Amino acid sequence: MKLLHLDSSILGDHSASRQLTRDVVQACQSAHADAQVTYRDLASNALGHFSAASLAAAGTPLEARDAAQQHEVVANEATLQQFLDSDVVVIGAPMYNFTVPSQLKAWIDRIAVAGRTFRYSEAGPEGLCGGKKIIIVSTSGGLHQGLPTGAGHEELLKALFAFIGVTDLQFVRAHGLAYGEEPRASAMTAAQQQIKDLFAA
């Protein structure tokens, strides 16, 4: 089993989402001895934001690309293939200003690719990633789940992965982390229990 572990928090060792994604991966490894983990830090090794240059590079024939275009195409293809090759993807998705980190959005823009992760047909769009399991560690300083302020966070991720065909989507949540030491500790403890429940025999 191939597991892709993604972090996107900019907070390093102070990050709740990073702590929890590590715990998810460790629990998965304990449950699946054959798990092969690939780690990617989208904050410290960030992809460039998707741009007109990205599109131009993809549409330029190999022999006509300059060095920058070739680098862009190779990096984008590697990112996409890494996702396609994975059976399980664990994603740290903190909320920044009511949405996901821009570094995570840049990754999303590389894996939502027509003809690779979804396709259009006469019946409409069809997702091509139905065999994957996605576990999202959702963290936030406030409480936004089910509110308009949360629409650009979990709802965005739900819509994206549903669009590309993922039906096995799980969330580990630690919200209200900025409400004080006790609420933070309680939220983290609850998240740890959610992780245990995910991998309970």
From TrEMBL:
<dbReference type="Pfam" id="PF02525">
    <property type="entry name" value="Flavodoxin_2"/>
</dbReference>
<feature type="binding site">
    <location>
        <position position="9"/>
    </location>
    <ligand>
        <name>FMN</name>
    </ligand>
</feature>
<keyword id="KW-0520">NAD</keyword>
<dbReference type="InterPro" id="IPR003680">
    <property type="entry name" value="Flavodoxin_fold"/>
</dbReference>
<dbReference type="InterPro" id="IPR023048">
    <property type="entry name" value="NADH:quinone_OxRdtase_FMN_depd"/>
</dbReference>
<dbReference type="InterPro" id="IPR029039">
    <property type="entry name" value="Flavoprotein-like_sf"/>
</dbReference>
<feature type="binding site">
    <location>
        <begin position="15"/>
        <end position="17"/>
    </location>
    <ligand>
        <name>FMN</name>
    </ligand>
</feature>
<dbReference type="GO" id="GO:0016652">
    <property type="term" value="F:oxidoreductase activity, acting on NAD(P)H as acceptor"/>
</dbReference>
<keyword id="KW-0285">Flavoprotein</keyword>
<comment type="function">
    <text>Also exhibits azoreductase activity. Catalyzes the reductive cleavage of the azo bond in aromatic azo compounds to the corresponding amines.</text>
</comment>
<comment type="function">
    <text>Quinone reductase that provides resistance to thiol-specific stress caused by electrophilic quinones.</text>
</comment>
<dbReference type="GO" id="GO:0016655">
    <property type="term" value="F:oxidoreductase activity, acting on NAD(P)H, quinone or similar compound as acceptor"/>
</dbReference>
<feature type="binding site">
    <location>
        <begin position="139"/>
        <end position="142"/>
    </location>
    <ligand>
        <name>FMN</name>
    </ligand>
</feature>
<feature type="domain" description="Flavodoxin-like fold">
    <location>
        <begin position="1"/>
        <end position="197"/>
    </location>
</feature>
<comment type="subunit">
    <text>Homodimer.</text>
</comment>
<keyword id="KW-0288">FMN</keyword>
<keyword id="KW-0560">Oxidoreductase</keyword>
<comment type="similarity">
    <text>Belongs to the azoreductase type 1 family.</text>
</comment>
<dbReference type="InterPro" id="IPR050104">
    <property type="entry name" value="FMN-dep_NADH:Q_OxRdtase_AzoR1"/>
</dbReference>
<dbReference type="GO" id="GO:0010181">
    <property type="term" value="F:FMN binding"/>
</dbReference>
<dbReference type="GO" id="GO:0009055">
    <property type="term" value="F:electron transfer activity"/>
</dbReference>
<protein>
    <recommendedName>
        <fullName>FMN dependent NADH:quinone oxidoreductase</fullName>
        <ecNumber>1.6.5.-</ecNumber>
        <ecNumber>1.7.1.17</ecNumber>
    </recommendedName>
</protein>
<feature type="binding site">
    <location>
        <begin position="95"/>
        <end position="98"/>
    </location>
    <ligand>
        <name>FMN</name>
    </ligand>
</feature>
